[in-house]
Design a protein that fits this description.
The chain has a single domain, classed as VSR Endonuclease (Endonuclease, Chain A), CATH 3.40.960.10. It is built from four helices and four strands, in the order ααβββαβα.
Length: 121
């Protein structure tokens, strides 16, 4: 049986991503860490199958992805769609925000996350 969450083969990739977080990831992580958002615990750089997502809340199966410049390069939209399809097929919801959303109005981003969390006990 294949391990769905944090496969061992991704460990070094996840560690590198955590040590090289983007500005927007650092800003959002400041708010999400330590169960600061409505008591929900988030993990950063969580492996889900062959993919590593920015933030994951296991209690409600919610992924929060931040889209930076690389998500607008050729072929990225298609890869993001395939990745999201795989994640959603696991019963996990995906919320997407841009880096600019976080950097310019993190309050709205947090409000959007809280709204999504409020749909679940």
């Amino acid at each position: 049986m294949v391990k769905l969450f944090n496969p061992n083969a991704q460990k070094s990739t996840r560690q590198k991503l955590r040590s090289r977080m983007t500005r927007s990831e650092k800003i959002l992580w400041y708010y999400l860490r330590g169960s600061n958002v409505e008591g929900y615990k988030f993990r950063r750089q969580q492996g889900i199958g062959p993919h590593v997502v920015d933030f994951y809340c296991p209690r409600v199966k919610l992924v929060v992805e931040l889209d930076g410049d690389s998500h607008y390069q050729e072929g990225a939209k298609r890869r993001d769609a395939q990745r999201q399809k795989f994640i959603e097929a696991q019963g996990i919801r995906v919320l997407r925000f841009t880096d600019n959303d976080v950097c310019e109005n993190v309050g709205e981003v947090i409000a959007g996350i809280i709204k999504e969390l409020s749909h679940h006990p």
